Q: What sequence folds into this?
């Protein structure tokens, strides 16, 4: 996977994609929002989560499906998201690049006095 602008993951996209993968079959808007907030301590807006999920789906990094309607949601259905092969490859690339850069920091840089 190249680093073309269309396939580049922004930080929030990467967090959302990681969270979709981690939540597996339970990845829907509010669950993703709650998990990102719990793991990062960030206050996240549900609209931002929905926007990033739309972007990720447009890039082909996630697929979505509609779940059944539930009484606790007033008959509304949830949209569930799953990681695609392309999404997994984008994460592999992003994490690999971060690790490569981190590992290239000279050891003496970490000798803090």
A:
């Amino acid at each position: 996977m190249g680093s073309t602008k269309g396939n580049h993951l922004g930080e929030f996209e990467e967090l959302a994609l990681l969270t979709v993968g981690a939540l597996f079959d339970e990845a829907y808007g509010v669950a993703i929002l709650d998990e990102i907030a719990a793991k990062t301590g960030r206050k996240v807006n549900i609209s931002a989560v929905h926007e990033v999920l739309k972007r990720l789906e447009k890039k082909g990094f996630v697929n979505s499906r509609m779940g059944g309607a539930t009484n606790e949601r007033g008959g509304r259905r949830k949209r569930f998201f799953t990681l695609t092969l392309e999404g997994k490859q984008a994460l592999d690339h992003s994490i690999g690049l971060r690790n490569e850069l981190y590992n290239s920091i000279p050891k003496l840089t970490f000798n803090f006095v």
The chain has four helices and two strands. Helices lie at 11-23, 29-40, 46-59, 85-103. Residues 1-5 have pLDDT under 50 and may be disordered. The longest helix spans residues 85-103.
